């Protein structure tokens, strides 16, 4: 090889090497455009090429929504039902919460037995057929005929009478009074065996409701001359049953009497 040829070959090899001005690192230049095309793309350009197009994203989203809709339809459940959302029951709730006509109590002092004919006189009783003490003894003295009916009723039914009532029409033995007697069975027993105040209060409302139903039935079957007229009651439960009157009063005044003919009751107490 001639010196000139060797020099020329050296120059060509030198042309293949370039020096980066900043780092001083040498790198080989591509011999041709094909070598350049074989070089790996920069990372930022590769990531850009891998990103899906807007059209692809929209297509995938639409396909996903269609699948969800199809699955929901196949389940046969609409979205509100699937979320267990309650139906609008405000109308029914308002109807249930709307108060009717409550029983009215009119308190006064006097003689409960000094009442017009066909009046109903009410007191609380035990279920054992005993009117032996307290105001019950006074009822026994005034209404001997009614007491016999009450005692026989208790003997036949016993403690099953708890929370119920008994309406006793005027008896021949009590013709001077001509009063109805109402018995509210608010305690199963008496004395030390009487029910607790809470149990007595819980029995008062259903017992009074039962008595009002019996009055309604009686008046529907009898003429005005034989129907129940004025209604009187003592401060029930507050004597030997030892329940504060105000607590019983609250229970009584909560009674709904909208569908009953009896809308008010006179509470008669003796002078202290």
UniProtKB/TrEMBL annotation:
Residues 92-272 form the Macro domain. This is ADP-ribose 1''-phosphate phosphatase. Highly specific phosphatase involved in the metabolism of ADP-ribose 1''-phosphate (Appr1p) which is produced as a consequence of tRNA splicing. Belongs to the POA1 family. One of its GO terms (biological process) is peptidyl-glutamate ADP-deribosylation. GO terms for molecular function: phosphoprotein phosphatase activity. It catalyses: ADP-alpha-D-ribose 1''-phosphate + H2O = ADP-D-ribose + phosphate. Residues 1-99 are annotated as: Disordered. It is an enzyme of class 3 (hydrolase). PROSITE patterns: MACRO (PS51154). Keywords: Hydrolase, Protein phosphatase. Residues 71-93 have a biased composition (Polar residues). InterPro entries: ADP-ribose_metab_enzymes, Macro_dom, Macro_dom-like. It comes from Lecanosticta acicola. Its EC number is 3.1.3.84.
């Amino acid at each position: 090889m001639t010196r000139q040829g060797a020099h020329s070959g050296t120059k060509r090899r030198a042309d293949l090497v370039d020096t980066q001005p900043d780092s001083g690192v040498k790198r080989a230049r591509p011999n041709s455009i094909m070598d350049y095309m074989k070089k790996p793309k920069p990372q930022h350009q590769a990531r850009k090429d891998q990103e899906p197009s807007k059209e692809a994203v929209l297509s995938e989203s639409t396909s996903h929504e269609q699948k969800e809709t199809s699955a929901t339809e196949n389940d046969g459940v609409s979205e509100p039902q699937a979320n267990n959302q309650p139906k609008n029951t405000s109308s029914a709730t308002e109807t249930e919460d709307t108060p009717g006509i409550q029983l009215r109590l009119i308190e006064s002092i006097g003689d409960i037995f000094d009442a017009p004919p066909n009046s109903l006189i009410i007191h609380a009783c035990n279920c054992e057929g005993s009117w032996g003490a307290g105001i019950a003894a006074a009822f026994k003295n005034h209404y001997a005929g009614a007491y016999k009916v009450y005692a026989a009723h208790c003997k036949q039914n016993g403690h099953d009478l708890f929370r119920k009532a008994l309406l006793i029409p005027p008896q021949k033995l009590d013709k001077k009074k001509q009063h109805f007697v109402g018995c509210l069975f608010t305690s199963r027993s008496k004395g030390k065996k009487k029910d607790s105040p809470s149990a007595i209060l819980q029995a008062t409302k259903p017992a009074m409701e039962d008595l009002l139903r019996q009055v309604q039935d009686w008046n529907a079957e009898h003429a005005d001359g034989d129907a129940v007229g004025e209604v009187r009651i003592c401060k029930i439960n507050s004597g030997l049953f030892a329940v504060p009157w105000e607590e019983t009063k609250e229970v009584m005044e909560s009674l709904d009497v909208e569908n009953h003919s009896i809308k008010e009751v006179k509470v008669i107490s003796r002078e202290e």
